[in-house]
Amino acid sequence: MIQKYIVERRSWIILFLFLQFLIIVVSYFDPTIPLMSIVYIVFISMIIFIIFLIIRYNKETKFYKSVETWENNLDLTSISNAESPFEKIIENSVTNQTELLKQIASQNWMSLEQEKDELLSWIHEVKTPLTTMRLVIDRLDNEPIKAPLIYEWLRIHLLLDQQLHQKRIPFIENDLYIENIDLKALIIKEIKDLQSWCIQKGIGFDLHIEVNEVLSDAKWLAFIIRQLLTNAIKYSEASDISIKSYQQDEQTILEVEDFGRGIDPKDLARIFDKGFTSTTKHQDHAATGMGLYLAKKVTKTLLINIDVHSKLGIGTTFTLIFPKRNQFLHISGM
Prior knowledge:
10 helices, 60% helix
């Protein structure tokens, strides 16, 4: 311990000794300075310095000695295979922290569940006056007023529908019902719901449904198609949107093709990211960046592959590749 103490302070000890030596050398060569007096002063300084080191050694090493003793006790305890007080403190602390974190996580989960249930309840409550509002709008005879009202009503309806499905997606496995679906009937129903918007923009539809039956969940498949159609209508001007289905390699393929503004090549890899809208039309505040993100999440659960091809200024084609029947075995029990 003494050796370690001196080694740690060797720099200022050497400095002190050098200064004393320098004083003696200067007094030796300078006849105006009495050598014996300087030697005496240096001697007294050395004694005081040594006493200072001894006092500081006892004070500064007292704590480290206690630590060494404590470590020795720990080593002896570990050798005897007995749990040390330190280990008990650590173990109790970890246990308490674990329990606290479990309680916090449980409270947060309950809070999120309550918030989700309240939001779903609110959405269902809002749908009632929204339905009444649509009935009132349908009774209007003034077409110039009626058309924009229907469009704004449709926007609210689609946003609420998107929010409702977004909250249900984490529990989508509990809501699946795999069955044979009439694809053409499902698509026509979604087109009718968007009819007023399409009329306002001068958009028509060109249907070529070669394969009319697919195996999937009707409600969630309708949600996917709804997102693709609203996307196509939103970014297209007066033109026809082409929808076709066909068989390829024992799989049903559904394509939704528009002739709108298209997607910039640098955006294609990001269009399914949460919250991403566009880099070319970044000032478009109407876009939420959630529709394609949610559609992508649902397709994964339904084992549907979704692909997109687009050329800027020419149009965009979204392709849904449905799974083979035997691929549903592990989620539908068929």
